[in-house]
Every structure is written in structure tokens, then in C-alpha cells.
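Customer ticket, subject: "Can you confirm the structure for Pyruvate, phosphate dikinase?"

Message body: Hello, I'm evaluating your service for our small team and ran a test protein. I'd like someone to confirm that this is what the system normally returns, since I don't have a reference to compare against.
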Amino acid sequence: QKFVYSFGGGKADGKAEMKTLLGGKGANLAEMSVLGIPVPPGFTITTEVCAKYYEEGKKLPEAVKPQVQAAIAEMEKLVGAKLGDPTNPLLVSVRSGAALSMPGMMNTILNLGLSDAVVEGMAKKTGNPRFAYDGYRRLIDMFGSTAMGVDHEHFEHELEALKQAKGVKNDTDLSADDLKVLVEKYKAVYKAHTGTDFPQDPIEQLWASIMAVFNSWMGKKAVEYRRIERISGLKGTAVNVQAMVFGNMGSNSGTGVAFTRDPNTGADEFYGDYLINAQGEDVVAGIRTPEPIAQLDQEMPKVYEQLLGIRKTLESHYKEMQDIEFTVQDGTLYMLQTRSGKRTGSAAVRIAVEMVAEGLIDQKTALQRVNPESLNHLLLPQLDPKAKDKPVAQGIAASPGAASGKVVLSAEAAVAHAEAHPDVKILLVRKETSPEDVAGMHLAAGILTSTGGKASHAAVVARGWGKPCVVGCEVVRIDEKTGTVRIGEHTVKAGDYLTINGTTGDVMIGQVATVAPSISGHFATLMEWADKIRTLKVRTNADTPIDSAKAREFGAEGIGLCRTEHMFFGDQRITAMRKMIVADDVEGRKAALAELEPFQKADFVGIFEAMDGLPVTIRLLDPPLHEFLPHDDKGQAEVAKQLGVTSQKVKDRVEQLHEFNPMLGFRGCRLPIVYPEIGDMQVRAIIEAAIEVKKQGKSVLPEIMIPLVGTIEELVFVKTRAVAVAEEVMKDKGTKVDYLIGTMIEVPRAALTADKIAEEAEFFSFGTNDLTQMTFGFSRDDIKGFMPTYLREKILPVDPFQTLDANGVGQLIEIGVAKGRKARKEKTGEHLKVGICGEHGGDPESVAFCHVVGMDYVSCSPYRVPIARLAAAQAVL
Ligand code: ADP
Ligand code: MG
Ligand code: MG
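Agent reply: Thanks for trying us out. I re-ran your input and got the following:
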């Protein structure tokens, strides 16, 4: 079996399609090699070896060794140097690389092959002892920390101590002799912490490093990253061993990272950073603030031109925006990596649309290029242009959108804060971030760093998640000890509000007003393409005219769920509602309901007006009545005073209504069955509003939805009453409106008896929140205690309240759709309209499921409407 694939010298054993086996990095190094792009030669050990390594209890399969030896020989031949040969040494890097990119999640070891003897030879051969010893001390550090688990801080400590002793500020100010001293110090640190000497045999170094890469696959950072990104099912990481090229050989050398297009805006502009006289991670780590890539045109015009050529070659070959890494050694350019670049939602949209215009891809490909979830980014609030708040600092705009939040100064603090106050937005302020920080970064509304460039860890990660981010804001000074941040002459404390604008790089003190976004330009174009292709309609969940209008602007084709309970809050309304609940008899309830009716009607008028020409599904009152009464003595006393009854009476009623399990309690259709006058009032308000709006010359399509039905008899009971009221109102007003009466399918029994129910229901809407609760027997509000463990232990692949459980809950839906449609057709000859109105209606994976089972529409919150439109189009492709 072939475990090792070589690349270099204009050819390769592998190719880009072999990502699963060679990892993204290895596959693309092979591809670039074949394309004739200059790549230092090397070889890739496959992901299968990683899988075997773990299967065999962290042991490398024997068969790998001879293959690696052969590949080393080949690499030595191509480079014309030998591992461990002091007169003509070959140095290599050992790099990880899984099938999906996990930036900075695993460890890279550079300069491997240096030893006491080789470093001397290297110094002689290059005539640059400073360079040789700098490489050696870096190797001891990287190998020690990555392969042997020595804390990097111990090495850093020695470096700082030496710099202080020498009175210098930068690493680059240390002389060759200083670095020689440092090497000895590092070796001592290594020995102190590992109990062994730093290995002098390059092959020993190599094997230890290869194992270290395999070990990093299960390291904390990598596991955490896969958890957050929901990556599973990969075999492991590949290992790439590659001849070193040196960006730190002097002022004619350097290293950089770039994107073939702007990953923030998507503009067709070369975008990136580089550093002269630097090695690898220096650019990404945010230690020195790098130069913008365009500057390279001045410093190394030939290299820059070559790089522009490669940019073109890569884009026309991959037909996708690329994220590249390169190094210049003494004026010669080498490519070290290419992969499709992470980008913001807005950039994804622009790039996809522009690539269609450029003839690189077609519309269908463009639609598949944009992750629906990433559209969130375009729907993020933007800073109100009218806001008067003046920026107090400006950094580099690294990931667009505005974010305000309470300042936290560490990832741990972010986690602690989010646990204690889940509803309070936080802003993570750091000097720089590293892969250890991802959990905290994930919880922050935005990220601000004082160092680092556009390709720094913070920038890349924030962009991937669509989180606003500003980096390299140099006037920001963080003092973790006192918990304060100085921004120029201003000081803010941890816990104070700060606002960043990731679109411009501005930083403002306090909370700045934001405005809602709109769909235009490239976004609108992509949405048009999506609409052309999709067959599933997209409605919205809205219960105010403002939300309805917003959703319509975002492309909603109706309201799939208007929750009426929200309309019973507000001063006068809640009082009337409480009066109704506390009333002793029907007459009392009717009187209170009469007070509520004008409010309900006015609300419906507003919504019908906003949705002119589109269907509006209104759900009758759903929650249990006790939710409208206060549960504390003080609150109850106040209500009693307002209603003119005794406190005891309110208290008694609350006790009477108390439920052990409200989720399964006195709610949904059970309310209008016991208190028909409640349903009557609502239906009257709906029909009267519809008539009124129809008289304005608008088109009104009300759909009355009865919740929580489990038996046909329940539906018949409520429906009969509703029809009677509706007919009476229409007769009274002398005007007819078309309306439908349907039901939610959210009790498993309703799904199972959908054929019966469909004989009476004119539409179905799957209430997947309740259906999921009842199918799993999980109360949605009480999953906190076990869901994290369930997900960690993979007892559930995802939270079923976020992504529809296709296997279980999905079966009930399939049964419901099939039985319902068939029975309705047989009885009435009509097509039964079926939709979904749970939280799942805006989740792309669930939308795909709804498409497959043949629903007519999904309904989701206004801000998810564009996401659902795109997801519905992708479901067709
Ligand atoms: P990551 O997966 O975290 O991006 P890489 O394997 O790309 O890690 O390595 C990080 C950096 O190390 C690279 O960006 C590059 O600058 C440097 N590097 C890796 N291999 C070599 C090499 N053979 N020669 C020079 N620099 C290298
Ligand atoms: Mg890399
Ligand atoms: Mg429900």
C-alpha cells in the first residue's frame, strides 16, 4: 500500500482531488507542483497512516518507514543536499494538513535537521552564522514545545532575559554570538524539561516530529476546533515533509500570506501581508505588524510580478479564490501553500457573482459557493451612519459588521462571562489571539486586537465565523492585571461597553446605535438566481407590521406563523387579559375579551396591510394562561389592585392554574375548547380586520391555524366554532373574504393520524419545536443540563432543536405529509398545503429536508429569510 506521495521538480504523485488521502495542504502542494509553480520538493504521509497510528495504539505502521526513506532520498536528489550532512545540509519542515483546513490548529516544525554539527556547516555554507543559529534556536523551541511538550514560555523567557541583558528590543537586534548563547540556554531548557539531550540525529528528529503531528490531531485545540466547526468523519491529518526555504536570510528574503481577492469585501484585489527577513509564522502570529502586499511591488518588483502571475494561474485553475503562503529566499519565490480562502459572507457573495461575470463559474456553482449561514454576515446590523459617536482609535478592518459589547480581556473571561450572563454581548480585547482562545472568541460578539495584520489568527477566525473584528489597533494598550484598556488618552475597564466597526476599523467607546441592513447589489443578484431555481417557498414568522415589512423586504412570500400571544402584552392589553383570566364566569370573560378585541383587530389590520397579496397564517392563542399572571406576591398584589379584586383571589387563580409540566399542560387548542369565547374573539378580530383591509382594495389571505391538535375531534370542535363566527361576521358586514382553517402538526399523534386530520384541515404547518420536544421527550427549556454532554459524547450529532432530527422527528413529518396529502386529495380533490414554522425553518440543513419531503414552504424569522431562500435553492442543486 502506498503511504507516501512525493512532490516537487514539476511533478507529483498526488493531485488536488486527493484531499481525503493527502490532506488539503499535501494535495494542493502536489497540484501546484504539476502546474509548474515553484514549490520546494517534499512528500506527504497519508491520512490513512494517521488513522492506523491511532488504531495501533499510537504506533506507526512498519511499512511506512522504507517509503519515507525512499522519499527522503528523492527529495535530497531534487534539492542537491543531504539531511544531516554538515557540509551540505538539507533542512525540512514537518507540517500537518487534514482534508479540511484547520488554520493554526496543529503544529508545524521548521528547520528540522539542524544539530550542533549541522548548524556549523550551515553557518559556513551560507556565510551567515546569525541566520544559522537563529534557525537552530527556533528548531529547539518548536521541536521542544510541539514534539516534547515543553512549555513554549520557558524558551520565550530565556529569549526575553537575553534581550534585556543585551538592552535590545527586537529579536533581530541579537547578534550571531548572542544567538549561540541562546542555543545553549534553549538546550538547557530542553534537557531540564525532558530529561534528555536535544536529539542530534535528524532522522530521530523527523520521526518524533511526524508523531507529534499525528498527536496534535487529537490535541485540545484541534478537537475544540472540530467541535465548533462541526467537523467529523475525517480519517486524521496527513504529514507533509518539505525542503526548507528561508525567508529570514536577509533583506532580499521574506515571507507572506495573501488572498487572491479581498476576503472581507470580495473585491478583485490582491490582498495580504508580508514581512522582510522573517520566517513562517511571524506574519500570522501578529508579533510584528507586517507590510501590505502591494508594497512588495516597491521592494521586490520581480517577485511581485511573478506572484501576480501565480495569482492568475491559481484562480483560473481552481476557479476559486485562493489563500496562499509564500516565501522569498534571496530573491527567489517559492509557494508553500494554496487553499480556497475563508471569506466573509459578503465577500463570498461578491466573489461568486463576479466569477460568473468573468466566465469562471456558472450560476449554479455560484449558488453552491455561498454557505447560507454566512449570509448572516450581510444581515448583521451596521453602525447607524447618523450616530454621532466619534471613533477614539482606528485599527485594521479585518472582518466587517458592527459589534458592541462589554469588554473582556481573555478567552477564559469570555467563557465565564457568557456562562454567567448569556444574554449580554461581549467584546474580546486582546493583544493578539491564538488557537487556545477559540472557545472564548466564539462567544464574543466582536474581537479587537492591538497587534497583527489582516492574516492574523484573530482576523482569519473572525472572518470564518462572520464576526466583526478589528486588528492591529496599535494605540490599544491592555493591562490584564488592573483589568483596564488604554486607548490613546481614554481608559475603559473590563465590563465597560466598547464598539468596533469591522467594516472601517473604527473603535468607539460605549454602545453605538446600529441600523438594519438591506439586500442590494451582488446580494440581490444572487438571491434572484436562488429564487429562479428553488421550488420551496419561504415565509416568515412575524407578529408585528414592522417585522412583516422587514421580512417582505428580505423576500418573504407570506407569514407562516403569526403568534397572537405576543399581542396580549403591553399596559392596557395585559390588564384586560388578566381580567379575563381572573373572571369567574363566561360573562366576565366576554367583557374582558371585548376590551382586547379592538387591539387584536388593529394588529391584524397592520399585518394584513403589510402583507398585501400574500398569505398570513395566524395561530390562535397557544401558551397556558398562567404565563400571563405574575407568580410573586408583590406582582399579584399589584394585579389585584388594578383589577379591583382581592390579592387572595389572584393568588388562588394562579394556584389553580399551576402546572407541573406546562409544556404538556393546558394550552393550544385546549384553551378554546374549554373557553370557546377566547377563540371566538380571535376569529372575529381576524375576519373583521381582513374585511377592513379588503375594503381598502388590498388582497388579504388569512389562514387561521389551530395549535396543538392531537385528535380530529379537537380540530372539529374548534373549527366548527371558528367557521360559525367567521360566517356571522361576514354576514354582518355584508362582505366575504376567503380564509382557510388549518392546524399545526406538533403532537406526534397528529402526525400519525394525519389522514383523519386532513379531512378537516385545509393546511398543515409542522410545529417542529413542539414536535421535537414531544418526540424526544425533551423539554426545550430544560436541555441545558444534559445537551452539552450529549453533544460531546456524540449521543446526538447536533442539537435537535437547531437542526431537525431527520431520522426520528423526520419520520413523523414524512408520515404526516404523505397521509395528509393523500387523504385530502381523496376527500376534496385538493392539494394540501404543507409548511413548517418551527425554529428549523431557517436552518439550512432542515430546509433541505423540508424540500425533500415535498413541503410547500418553510417559515422562519425575518433575518433568516434570505438564508432559507438560498438553502432552498441549494436543496434543488
Ligand atoms: P498551518 O497549517 O498552520 O498554516 P503550515 O504548515 O502552513 O501551518 O506552516 C506554517 C508556516 O511555516 C508556513 O506558512 C510557512 O511560512 C512556514 N513553512 C512551512 N514549511 C516551510 C518550508 N518548507 N520552508 C519555509 N517555510 C515553511
Ligand atoms: Mg499554512
Ligand atoms: Mg407549538
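A couple of notes from the result: The longest helix spans residues 586-610. The chain has four domains: 4-246, 247-343, 381-515, 534-567+596-619+679-876. Feel free to reply with more questions.
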